[in-house]
Amino acid sequence: MQNYSIGTAGKPWGEKEKAQWYEQQSVKRSVKEEVFTKLQNIIPEGFRLQQYGALPYDEARYPLYAVVPTSFDSSKPSALVTGGVHGYETSGVQGALKFIETKLSNYAASVNIFVVPCVSPWAYETINRWNPLAIDPNRSFYPDSPAPESQQLMQFVTSLKTDLSLHIDLHETTDTDNSEFRPALAARDGTDHDNWNIPDGFYTVANTPNPQLAFQQAVIEAVKGVTHIAPPDESGKIIGADVVSEGVICYDKKSLFLCGGMTDANFVTTTEVYPDSDNATPENCNDAQVAAVCAALDFII
């Protein structure tokens, strides 16, 4: 049983422990400067910025934004790009912003694209996996979700009134998964955990009931030109899951209430970039996310 700075080993947290955890959090970077201000200046022609909500912790400080087409064409497929569900996973947010700035307009004629670059702005500022309620938004995509990040994103997607062909959700796997976030999870839930080997490289997470491996492999092949693909560990797995194709594992996204499971899109993938690699830079990680989004869009086109 690992010890954590909050709570008693083996005993789930109550409100007191969750409040303790919240009191330890602090703003480490500015979501306004790094995301919102940047976003205002990079919207290409044919798209507009839509505020679809705000987080109740501080509605003025944490608006929720999507980039949407100014006109919708029902004859074209529709795609959703999400980033920053886990706010600490920087390239999920910055990669989405770079895609908006550099590539989005290239696809406007072929696809109705909706981009939500920062689902969890409080977590972006505080570099957290959880929200202030000690809830993981990426395990909270279900009706009456207690996570406002998840709840408001689901409401936004419902409001689009369109069947999505593609959903790509941009994430990272970091060394802090083992050093902080998984120990915190075990402490919160009063359970134990085993550390897994953090994969050195990029991989994707397909949807178990409908993995679409040719689609996943198209994403992997595109990213190979930007960064290295994560190899399996000595057990032939990546983060404890079987490798079903080069750089590809599967999770049942709906049963785990993941962001990638909130739609019925036929093509779904979660990207995972490794920013702590000796061979990675922030720009390289952002470029890997952009390459993944472009490859996913190219596949459905």
From TrEMBL:
Keyword hit for ATP-binding: no
GO biological process: proteolysis
Domain of life where this protein originates: Bacteria
Domain Peptidase M14 intervals: 23-301
PROSITE patterns found in the cross-reference section: PEPTIDASE_M14
Required cofactor(s): Zn(2+)
Pfam families per record: AstE_AspA_cat
GO MF annotation terms: hydrolase activity, acting on ester bonds; metallocarboxypeptidase activity; zinc ion binding
Entry keyword annotation includes Ion transport: no
Keyword set, alphabetical order: Hydrolase, Metal-binding, Zinc
InterPro entries, alphabetized: AstE_AspA_cat, Peptidase_M14
Family assignment from sequence similarity: Belongs to the peptidase M14 family.
Name of the protein this chain belongs to: Peptidase
Organism: Alteromonas genovensis
